């Protein structure tokens, strides 16, 4: 009866509205900085220089009644009209910088005209950044994703268990799976949370007798050894040798070990078998049974807990077909059908585990004392699980669950366990909740310190705050910039920051997609899962090195080193690396020209290719989107994709794409994408270097050259790196925006621009160090503040 009542209570709690969580927390506001005389100067420059430029170069397509691409520019007649639509002008800035506009068929402005217009746009946007009120944005309540749930369960409870592996896959938005507004809750997921809470607590707080008599049986393939082979049952020992199994003994107690055995008898004595534990002999048995009629050999022994090998050893092999006595002729063999362990037998009752002593730190007790103890347990556990101190109502509700279980006859331990299960299905555990003030929810206001601790820990650790963070939050000091900077340094030095490496880098560089990579085995027979693992490990080690060793983010583009094991080094054609251990390898000669940075890593090249061929458009799109922050628009719906032909065609990839670009709807985007993608064409679909491309009609030299819309020439991977390095500010801005999106758990907005500008400027002052990117995001108002959404 108690189970049904408890489950009903937990489901009601899990699916209840979170409106009751709104608390009267304080708010602050940041007003606008008063305007200065620069507006007059900006207005004069707009009417004197910029509007004539637009009229001469842009109105033919974006004015005079035309609005190609939904862009109209003739409506901007003054600086005041500019202020009302900064998003359009940010797009104007981007296309002018890249040389995408005016289109190539139109008369081009002089370099001075273009530079003068770009200077005004930059100055005008900078003025808005300095004078207009800033908006840190709205983030909905944020459900824990699968990685965050697993990590949090481990850090909160202490069990080595990944219950979220059985959960439905998380949706992604803006390139990441920790975006609040796509992490929905379904009835199926609610059921999974209920089941996971029960499983976690069963492992943490064991009820009943964990040392009840168990029987473990090992036979067939579970028996390993030497001098043996497969038999109809178990294993055949055809010469002196042994078969063994490893058993986990759970308690210091007696155990009964049973071995099923039979033999081919020959010679003057029966087959003999020695039973061994941990390599030490226990007893030698005569196996008189004939094959087909096995006997069971039994021995009882006291064993201490732990994993230990149990072996059955054949010790008197015999073969003689020429013995004078016919009875002595033949081949003696031993057959081990199974090894069985029964126990523990009469084990002493176990004491509480370390996890149980930590969770149920008081009690057991009955009546009012029991409820008082339950309240203390609930408050401590909920403070860590909710990432902030629970309210008295929360604690009282938990104690009611405990009391209901006790009333139904459950012991203290079981009732306490059910109470803690309820915490694990509370919205305050499953969601990261930031509460807006009830009186002015739309006014930007600073986060409370506990909310800030939660943002920070899930950003860098994908898990809950530790005691140090919670203590800093409780002291009301965490929001101070110096305290935040100190915490960032401490947390990045902690092994838990590997979660940021694998989760952020795995999605930004798409290394996670390697798990689903399936290159054509006929064309790429050397590709296997071990090579795939090496590819991903290289990317994560390199990324982690740039982060933890205070390196410049520009090493992501060009470096003279990488991290390799022997398998990947041979794949790259690099000598002198032996063994399975990864190590930092300095690149020289051809390797330095071909590799270095993340763009030419085999893992990145594999996830940006098709199963049977390269894909310059896919690789070009990856660079534009993930590295330069200028993603191309999606392809028109009526244009077919380039087919993924497994067989060799008679055309090179360049010829096939030139044919594809014959469609005018494709030409403008491919003019941006293809030169970048072809710069990487020397890397095949699994990232191996090649100089020639095979087609049905022969081999042809690869041409990795091209020209960008800006007029910049790109020639091969080395040339691509030079172009990106020449646009270092664009790359740093893109990376800052990606990290910010991941840190906030929401998509970018136009109001983020001032924050991004500030962060990029400060990062540049520190030689573009990656750890400084993280530090400046964390101390920025966009991370430490929020606003509500309103009704």
Report on this model:
- By secondary structure, this protein is α+β, with helices and mostly antiparallel strands.
- It has 29 helices and 20 strands.
- Strands 2, 3, 4, 5, 6, 7, 8, 9, 10 and 11 form a 10-stranded antiparallel beta sheet that branches. A two-stranded antiparallel ribbon has the order 1-12.
- The radius of gyration is 34 Å and the shape is flat.
Task: Report the uncertain regions.
Answer: 15-35
Tally the helices: what do you get? 29
List the quaternary state of the chains: single chain
Strand content: 15-25%
Q: What class, by secondary structure content? A: alpha+beta
Biggest pleated sheet: 10 strands, antiparallel
Quick overview:
The protein is an alpha+beta fold and 791 residues long.
Record the SSE blueprint:
Blueprint: H1 2-15, H2 38-57, H3 59-62, H4 79-83, H5 86-98, H6 111-131, E1 142-143, H7 146-157, H8 187-204, E2 214-219, E3 224-230, E4 235-249, E5 253-264, E6 271-277, E7 280-287, E8 295-303, E9 306-314, E10 318-320, E11 330-345, H9 354-359, H10 367-386, H11 392-407, H12 412-424, H13 427-430, E12 431-432, E13 445-446, H14 449-460, H15 467-474, H16 481-493, H17 498-508, H18 529-548, E14 561-564, H19 566-572, E15 583-586, H20 589-594, H21 602-607, H22 616-627, H23 653-660, H24 664-678, E16 692-695, E17 698-701, E18 705-707, E19 713-715, H25 716-726, H26 728-744, H27 753-765, H28 770-779, H29 781-784, E20 785-786
Antiparallel strand pairs: 1-12, 2-11, 3-4, 4-9, 4-11, 5-8, 5-11, 6-7, 6-9, 10-11, 13-20, 14-15, 16-17, 18-19
